[in-house]
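Re: [ENG-882] Designed sequences occasionally contain unexpected residues at chain ends

Forwarding the minimal case from QA. Structure tokens:
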């Protein structure tokens, strides 16, 4: 992966837009780099809680692409783009791995979080990732066509008081 690019600021008709985009190899090692780039991209006035939620969701999505989309036998690339406009952060992940099934993406519920953390045997083996993503973003869209998958995650953020 190349070093994260400094986000560019452009001016639309009435509001600033901030964008960053880069590509990297689909490896678990690069997942943390994407999280670091996200932290760099998000303006300091966005509350820490919102930053952490987005980081958790993006790391989970990236890990799913690496492990399940490409698997251990495939080498691939993931394109990541971030944009910020009018208090809305949009994160897009594009890959050419195995598509996510609709059942996996939109099925299930938050019952996966109903377990006793003191009882190791009750911990779910899988399924928490998609629930985490759904709970950390306000909107998730997914499309797959012509061998390309696009996961779009949207989070509405508000600046900290006094930093607007």
């Amino acid at each position: 992966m190349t070093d994260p690019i400094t986000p560019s600021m452009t001016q639309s008709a009435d509001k600033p837009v901030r964008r960053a985009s880069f590509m990297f190899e689909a490896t678990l090692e690069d997942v943390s780099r994407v999280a670091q780039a996200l932290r760099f991209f998000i303006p300091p006035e966005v509350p820490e809680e919102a930053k952490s939620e987005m980081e958790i969701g993006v790391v989970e999505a990236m890990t799913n692409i690496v492990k399940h989309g490409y698997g251990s036998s495939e080498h691939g690339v993931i394109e990541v783009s971030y944009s910020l406009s009018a208090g809305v952060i949009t994160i897009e992940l594009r890959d050419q791995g195995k598509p996510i099934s609709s059942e996996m993406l939109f099925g299930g519920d938050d019952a996966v979080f109903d377990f006793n953390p003191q009882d190791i045997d009750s911990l779910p083996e899988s399924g928490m990732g998609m629930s985490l993503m759904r709970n950390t973003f306000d909107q998730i869209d997914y499309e797959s066509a012509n061998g390309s998958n696009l996961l779009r995650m949207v989070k509405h953020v508000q600046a900290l008081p006094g930093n607007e």
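QA comment: On inspection the terminal residues look reasonable. DSSP finds four helices and six strands in the chain. Proposing we downgrade this to a documentation issue.
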